[in-house]
């Protein structure tokens, strides 16, 4: 039985007790496992939170984040935090995205028409989760899309997001053949399968499309470009905007969270922070309020390519116009001239936007702009983004965030090489780099590495200087031991 | 004959005409090549600048930076820009470090006692310069140090910096055997050999050492720790501080620039921006004024490990206390837990500090904290720092800085894959990543890559959407062609 099955079953069966006393005993009772339909009842975390209830998912999140459960509840109720947790994703280990919790990262996986298969995608999922992705998005656009997605959801302990328009497009001959009823059908199927959040490009309006003509790189969101093409072809308004309530009805039944897509995000530095992007952002704010009327959870997608001096403005405007719904950004990349290294160009922007207040950072791999990432690209992207998110947590002074850094720094100064590797984001790589020149076990306690050699290690010389003035390393050793218990005792 | 030989010969021979009319005809004339001694005359760029003279080096820099020569002169005179250009480094292609010019990067090369040889170091030099390092530092601490350095200076078109205390230490049995006269001897020899700038740890004072005991990682500058050890052993003040004028006299004769070392820079996030670091920074400001009294050029070294929220303060204080002398920082790293990826953790901090006003960024390679970098590590470090410095130039809105980004973005939108690779910081890597899935020549004009496949490329769909409304790509093609002339015509 999966972690959440009994929680959800209880909630569906009417045993659920809302904090404050009101019993939800009128809910139709179900038999069997918790993945049954909710028969129209609102199952969203936001709905429970607004009724004053602290769900098991909220308790779980509170423990992970070292926050008070009531704070989690109130943030979810306010819309400033989301817990993407589809009732059909039983083996999910609930996590939260929001300014009150640690900065999160997402890894995109999924195939395209030219490459990949299920095994390769499951390998990517494994790499992503192993190196620390907090959510994954399955962006498959080729092959048997529902089958790949089912395999990913079944195997994933982290929330799974999708962009349903990809599957919808795969079912029509030309993009202009898309209809809302087909989209809704796909959305419902994916919701029933257990997708935790979905990117919906409901904010790209027909009147925004002319703004794009001034740009160098036009529209760089696949969903955004598909909607623009559809609107230009039919001379009609965005059907996702016009039928937004219908989508909310599906979402609240299964507790799918919105990731309101930034279909007009800038695709290069020249296009950053332009009329098109900001016009859409305002509509996303309007849609946020609509979703919240249904108690449906929302986060807002953000760019993309933004120079450093314009990053803060992105967060400030998102918070103002989108009512502080969690901001979920792709990078942003801070330059355009480094294809092959865009995990780095974007980690710079991601760290900064996380510091300024974004709640989740969508990774970019070294392959961005060049091809579909393979499992090693996924690893490189995830690690670059663990760095960015952790840098953001340190800069925001999150309680306890620095403990692991401090422990590693003690290990470094005290020449405990094995602990230094263990405390690293990627122990195997750290160890391999050290061992490239000095492989022998002897060097795991040596007071130097090959960078400076035995005569020039500054930390070793500092210890000599301290010895000259009568200081030993007992105090540092004591503090190191205490930190290790705190960091590794708590599961690292 | 090397680029600068005739310039320097002219200046030594008395042919030099100071702008404004005053002829410097009293200078003793020399015969032969320009690498002869200056017989005690002040040969520093700052000295000429302050006399109102625009040297050939300043003209050269003005052309490279697209600045007015008079602006370069006045910035050098003011001390806000330096042109590290030892009169004995004839084949140097002069460059500038300062807030008015583009953000620069330095690559550290050099061996240690445990590894490396001359060929390997020349390979590192080649990689560093090929991928765009603006200066290199030879930090060799083992083997035949003067021989390695000579080979590097002879081969290097970019300024070469050193840390002379390393060679001095290699000549004594124990660090405490160091004397000022030995240091001065080494400094003079290196100056005569053509070293363009030297790190001198004259700001670490005896009274600062106790501050370090509270730190997790003590002193992480090799020079800083050696001076601290020497002071603690002898119970005496820093001999570099006490004999600073003697060093200035050597420097002005050969035009060596100071890189005033931050011997007490923090070595971990916990130690960032502490009493020790700031106490030393204030002394560096005092020494800057002393050096300027000799018309000797100065830049100030900076940290190290600093969380994002404290980076701006570093620049603000440096500018205030060190009178706007160019700031030359190592990273900073914004977290401590990613050994093996510290080129990324530090590129984040480097980009930000460059935006805030640092003039040169000393790279960090993936091997930092783990071992001596090999040539591929040098490449990875240089590219990460080209990204950081370029991001800083974009964020500071340097005129023309974005042209190459815009050209590459047009290439991207117009599916000119070959131009996209050409305009990249590392064309071979970009091409190889693209070709991993789609190697055929046919795909070099394809309207997709393997990331999205033929049906899902947002840029291709945008072009379809624009075609629906009657827009073709003629205007973008025209602008792309114009930018290409500007970017590639000017040497890329």
Largest sheet of chain A: 8 strands, parallel, barrel
Instruction: Sketch the topology of chain A as an H/E string, one letter per element.
Output: HHHHEEEHEHEHHEHHHEHEHEHEHHHHHH
Greatest chain-chain contact = A-B, 117 and 117 residues
Number of strands of chain A: 10
Distance between the termini of chain A: 27 Å
Average predicted confidence as pLDDT of chain A: 93
Helices of chain A, by number, come to: 20
- Characterize the quaternary organization of these chains: homodimer
Radius of gyration of chain A: 24 Å
Silhouette of chain A: globular
> What strand order characterises the main sheet of chain A?
3-4-5-6-7-8-9-10
Strand content of chain A: 5-15%
Poorly predicted spans of chain A: 19-36
Structural class of chain A: alpha/beta
Helix content bin of chain A:
40-55%
Explain what the structure shows.
Two copies of one chain form a homodimer. Chain A is globular. In chain A, helix 13 (311-321) crosses helix 14 and helix 16 crosses helix 20 (474-489). In chain A, helix 13 (311-321) links the parallel strand 8 and strand 9 (327-330). Chain A has helices spanning 5-13, 45-50, 56-65, 69-78, 118-131, 145-155, 164-170, 180-193, 222-234, 239-242, 244-254, 275-293, 311-321, 342-356, 375-395, 403-413, 417-422, 427-437, 458-468, 474-489; strands at residues 81-82, 97-98, 104-109, 135-138, 160-162, 197-200, 257-260, 298-302, 327-330, 360-362. Mean pLDDT of chain A is 93; it is low at 19-36. In chain A, the strands form two sheets. Chain A has an eight-stranded parallel β-barrel with strand order 3-4-5-6-7-8-9-10, surrounded by six helices. A two-stranded antiparallel ribbon of chain A has the order 1-2. Chain A contains 20 helices and ten strands. The relative contact order of chain A is 0.09. With 492 residues, the first copy, chain A, is α/β, with parallel strands linked by helices. The longest helix of chain A has 21 residues, at 375-395. Chains A and B meet through helix 9, helix 14, helix 15, helix 16 and helix 18 of A and helix 9, helix 10, helix 15, helix 16 and helix 17 of B.
């Amino acid at each position: 039985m999966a972690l959440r099955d009994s929680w959800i079953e209880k909630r569906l069966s009417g045993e659920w007790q809302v904090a404050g006393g009101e019993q939800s005993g009128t809910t139709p009772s179900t038999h069997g496992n918790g993945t049954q339909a909710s028969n129209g009842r609102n199952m969203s975390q936001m709905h429970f939170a607004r009724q004053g209830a602290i769900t098991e998912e909220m308790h779980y999140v509170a423990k992970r984040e070292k926050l008070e459960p009531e704070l989690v509840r109130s943030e979810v109720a306010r819309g400033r935090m989301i817990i993407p947790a589809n009732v059909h994703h039983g083996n999910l280990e609930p996590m939260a995205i929001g300014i009150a919790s640690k900065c999160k990262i997402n890894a995109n996986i999924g195939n395209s028409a030219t490459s990949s298969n299920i095994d390769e995608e499951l390998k990517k999922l494994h790499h992503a989760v192993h190196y620390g992705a907090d959510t994954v998005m399955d962006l498959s656009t080729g092959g048997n899309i529902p089958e790949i997605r089912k395999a990913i959801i079944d195997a994933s302990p982290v929330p799974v997001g999708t962009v349903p328009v990809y599957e919808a497009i795969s079912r029509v001959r030309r993009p202009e053949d898309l209809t809302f009823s087909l989209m809704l059908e796909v959305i419902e199927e994916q919701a029933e399968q257990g997708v935790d959040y979905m990117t919906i490009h409901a904010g790209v309006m027909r009147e925004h499309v002319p703004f794009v003509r001034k740009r160098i790189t036009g529209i760089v969101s696949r969903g955004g470009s598909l909607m623009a093409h559809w609107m230009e072809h039919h001379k009609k308004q965005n059907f996702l905007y016009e039928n937004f309530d219908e989508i909310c009805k599906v979402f609240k039944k299964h507790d799918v969270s919105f990731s309101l897509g930034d279909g007009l995000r800038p695709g290069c530095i020249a296009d950053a922070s332009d009329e098109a992007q900001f016009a859409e952002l305002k509509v996303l704010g309007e849609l946020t309020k609509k979703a919240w009327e249904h108690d449906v959870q929302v986060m807002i997608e953000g760019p993309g390519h933004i120079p450093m001096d314009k990053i803060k403005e992105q967060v400030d405007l998102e918070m103002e116009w989108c009512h502080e719904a969690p901001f979920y950004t792709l990078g942003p990349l801070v330059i355009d001239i480094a294809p092959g290294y865009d995990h780095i160009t974007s980690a710079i922007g991601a760290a900064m936007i996380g510091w300024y207040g974004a709640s989740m950072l969508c990774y970019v791999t070294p392959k961005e702009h060049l091809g579909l990432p393979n499992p090693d690209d996924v690893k490189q992207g995830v690690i670059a983004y663990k760095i960015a998110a952790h840098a953001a947590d340190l800069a925001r002074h999150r309680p306890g965030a620095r403990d692991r850094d401090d422990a590693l720094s003690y290990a470094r100064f005290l020449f405990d090489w094995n602990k230094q590797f263990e405390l690293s984001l990627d122990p195997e790589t750290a160890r391999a780099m050290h061992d490239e020149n000095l492989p022998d076990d002897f060097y795991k306690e040596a007071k130097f590495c090959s960078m400076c050699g035995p005569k020039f290690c500054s930390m070793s010389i500092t210890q000599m200087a301290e010895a000259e003035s009568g200081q030993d390393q007992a105090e540092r050793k004591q503090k190191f031991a205490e930190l290790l218990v705190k960091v590794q005792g708590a599961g690292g």
